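Appendix C reproduces, verbatim, an entry submitted by the partner laboratory led by Prof. M.T., so that reviewers can inspect both the input and the predicted structure.
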Amino acid sequence: MKKLKIASKFSEKALKKIMNSQTDVRAFKGWQIIYVGYSNPDLNANEIAERLCVSKSNVLKVVDRYNKYGKNWYVPDCRGGRREERCHMSLEEEKSIMKSLEDKALSGSILTFRHIKETVEKKVGKKVSDDYIWDLFSRHGWSKKVPRQHHPKADKAAQEEYKKNSKKIWMPKL
């Protein structure tokens, strides 16, 4: 395999200083690839990948970007979290809906998550998945309150009567 050609935009000492000043792990790994490739010009991409425990494609991608853009090769990408352009509602809109439903929930008027799903769908103007509603509950600290199934000292007949006549409701955590 042919050797990597890393552009000499910095000295070896300057590369090491830049590498050690990184606070982002991905940026550090990238600068480490560049440093190792620059300081060991006889290594190919496979050997660098093996030494640094990264993939060969990652080595080639980092070197290519560095040769093309220089010091500004690394652009941090946002991973995880809520991406507003893909969300049905903003966090503030979700909070306002959940706040408006709180009184109904505390009084026992909301029996299933379908009631809340219908409300959210009216607000959004389109259908939403069941997972979105469950995530909504989790995000805003709501939990499902149901009667306990059984207790060792409980009267089984009274418990069966209670289960038949009680409502299952949604309530916010207080």
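The mean pLDDT is 84. Additional entries are available on request from the coordinating office.
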